[in-house]
Design goal:
This protein has 325 residues and is mainly beta. Helix content is 4%, strand content 39%. The protein has a 21-stranded parallel sheet that branches. A 10-stranded parallel sheet has the order 2-5-10-12-14-17-20-23-26-29, with no helix packed on it. Strands 8-9 form a two-stranded antiparallel sheet.
Length: 325
């Protein structure tokens, strides 16, 4: 039995609850019955994807199960949409075996759990996005997004793609066939600014086939910060950040192609910092821009190859793969 089918059995008890279209608190409710009927918002055709074409608050009252590889579960076509998964899963049809570099998921396709393009003010909270052929969620050219307390599991593409100016917290991103978090830093949006800050906090990114976190290089002042997170067992680099920013108070271990890259291949690698991290048992501990990235109060050791680059600006605990003055 494939891994995602095992996990599906554990959440089967929350399937297919039905409820009224509008709750007493004014939140629009979504479930399988309403998805099949259509009309949740103007222009929402029967079946999938469920189209959210108006601003407002939406809440799942049951799981959504999509059985066609080319179809997404939810498509957001309006600004200012708050989507509460309410503890329920969005479920696709991909099946995965293996983990990290050996992970294989089939089938692939265009269907994702949640899709939004060129929007502002999108939030997604509190649920599961599971087994979609095209990936978990693509929020492209979205300014001001929030994704929190969501698990992305066994998707056959990237778990989560965002642009700049997003806050990501409380995520569990495990065994997806692409990157765990892919940040397109030069992603334009309706309210794009010369400086877009994004942050990932208190999350677990593990056993994905690609990087745990990957950010594209930015010619602007985009920053990406990782805080208090665990990044482990990914098939490529744990965190490959080609922007300003850094990592603090995080654990990065057991990643097949290295622990941390920061500022390398960046068009603007100023003000990078590693502080208070444990970086262990990777192919290499870190590879940093030699002049623009500082490191302090890290524990670095047990990595196969030597770490390189960076400026030591404070004490670190180092083993043989990194010489600390």
């Amino acid at each position: 039995m494939s891994l995602n089918r095992v996990a599906l059995a554990s959440i089967a008890a929350c399937l297919l609850a039905a409820g009224p279209g509008l709750a007493a608190d004014g939140v629009i409710e979504i479930n399988e019955t309403r998805a099949k009927a259509g009309g949740i918002t103007p222009g929402d055709a029967p079946g999938y994807p469920v189209t959210l074409s108006q601003p407002g608050s939406y809440r799942l009252t049951g799981s959504l199960i999509v059985t066609t590889a080319s179809l997404s579960a939810i498509e957001i076509t309006s600004d200012d949409v708050s989507l509460d998964l309410n503890g329920f899963p969005l479920v696709g049809i991909a099946g995965c075996n293996g983990e990290g570099a050996t992970l294989v998921c089939t089938p692939t396709g265009a269907g994702v759990g949640i899709f939004a393009h060129a929007r502002e003010g999108i939030s997604v909270r509190n649920g599961f996005v599971y087994a979609f052929p095209g990936g978990g969620a693509i929020l492209s050219q979205v300014e001001g997004c929030t994704v929190e307390d969501v698990s992305f599991l066994f998707n056959a593409g990237r778990a989560l793609q965002v642009g700049g100016s997003c806050t990501l917290s409380g995520l569990v991103i495990d065994r997806n066939a692409g990157e765990g978090v892919f940040v397109l830093t030069n992603d334009p949006s309706p309210a794009d600014s010369p400086s877009d800050d994004a942050v990932l906090r208190e999350s677990v990114l593990s056993r994905n086939r690609g990087e745990g976190v990957f950010t594209t290089s930015s010619a602007g002042r985009d920053r990406f910060q990782i805080e208090r997170s665990a990044i482990s067992g990914n098939g490529r680099t744990g965190a490959d950040l080609r922007t300003e920013g850094g990592l603090r108070d995080s654990a990065v271990f057991g990643n097949a192609q290295g622990g941390i890259r920061l500022g390398v291949n960046s068009q603007d690698p100023d003000s990078g910092m590693l502080r208070g991290n444990a970086v262990r048992s990777n192919l290499y501990g870190f590879a940093l821009d030699p002049a623009q990235v500082g490191y302090t109060h890290n524990n670095v050791g047990g990595n196969t190859n030597a770490s390189s680059g960076g400026v030591q600006i404070g004490p670190n605990v180092c083993e043989g793969d990194l010489i600390c003055p």
